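Got a spare moment? Tell me how you read both lines of this record:
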Amino acid sequence: MIELQDAGYGYDGRALLSGINLSLAPGSFHFLTGPSGAGKTTFLKLLYAELTATNGRVRVFGEDTKQLSRDAVSDMRRRIGVVHQDCQFLDHLPMRENVALPLTVTRRDVSSEAANLDELLGWVGLSQQAGSLPPELSGGERQRAALARAVITSPEIILADEPTGNVDWEMSQKLLSLLVQLNKMGKTVVVATHDLNLIRTAKAQVATRVLRIAAGSIQAAGADL
């Protein structure tokens, strides 16, 4: 589903990532760790073609992202749900409409998806907050709304960039539970995090692979996490 062949990314003559050889199978669960500035966000951006590799090849759904047209990139992204680190929303719209925005962007009839949307809001525990504006929500509620928005189009891949970075441990466990459920539904999940306790908790629930970024390369982490 995702394959990187000697892939790398750099700018201004500086290599941030290099020599990455990885294969992420359908239905797998991966954690990406490493210190701040190591390139975790950059790696995720390579996977959904926000950035293109400056060296090597990144193939997603069998396609080299370098060779994709703008329309083809848009089509590919409909199959990938991304939970961004900053959780940005349109503050003048209620959360229900914010979560439904990907449906609007992909020109799907939101009214015909109403039942699915309500079910999704219930799944992330936000039924009561559906009419609230984003500034009225807590950090944990915003993170769950961001996850709901990422999966509203039923993507095959979920990429989450530090989804628990700004919430307490109880909320971190709730978010992890949702990601585990998605994985058990057959979704490929990649989570960038610095929280080793989160990784240990996940390992008790689902088969995971831990990848560590260090010195611009990515390697499988040891079993001592």
